[in-house]
Description:
There is one protein chain. Strand 3 (73-79), helix 2 (86-102) and strand 4 form a beta-alpha-beta unit. Helix 2 (86-102) packs across helix 5. This protein folds into two domains: 1-48; 55-210, Glutaredoxin, CATH 3.40.30. The protein has 216 residues and is an alpha+beta fold. The relative contact order is 0.17. It has helices at residues 7-50, 86-102, 124-131, 145-154, 197-210; strands at 55-58, 63-65, 73-79, 110-116, 139-142, 159-161, 172-174, 178-181, 187-191. The chain starts with 6 loop residues before the first helix and ends in a 6-residue tail after the last helix. The protein contains five helices and nine strands. The longest helix is centred in the N-terminal third of the chain and has 44 residues, at 7-50. It comes from Pheucticus melanocephalus.
Amino acid sequence: GGPRLPLRQRLCVAGAVAGAAAAGWLYVRRQKERQQRSRRLQQLRRLALGQGDFQLRDTSGAARSKADFLGRWVLLYFGFTHCPDVCPEELEKLSRAVELLERDPALPPLQPLFVTVDPERDDEAALARYLRDFHPRLQGLTGTPEQVRAAASAFRVYVSAGPRDDDGDYVVDHSVLTFLLDPDGVFRDCYGRSRTAEEVARSVRGHMDAYEPLPP
């Protein structure tokens, strides 16, 4: 069997072998984690391309889709200009959240969007007039009834027009939610009526800080 190594040498050799084995196992595990993460990101990329897409027009009449806003964070709210109280409150809150985030110039750009659920009354001119009372960068989007219905459906927003009164006026019942999309177009979060502007801004900042771009 040959001469035995001194105990200290035997321990050193055993330690080196164990260390090499541990390093090899750690490398394999990290490689596997990287591959899993890459697959998950690729799946997110494919999902993002079709998730919540829309084909609408802005207040200048230019065609707009989700692809036009890639590269920016987006806060998107569905509502209508004849909404008596909920929509103005939510747009004030959205505007305030954007202002809070804009105080930090190190944060990435954030685009606020308002999509009408009432295209019959909310044409480009009506949207432009209405949005003057809110954040100056808040963009309005409208379209044909079919386009608006498709956009709302893509975000699973409930929309139902109520009965008309004697003057032909009506209210549109709809989900009251503000959606957050990241620069890849991936849906990240949504905020209901109970969330304050400060809470929304804090949540958005958290998503921004944790954001990692999807692979091309």
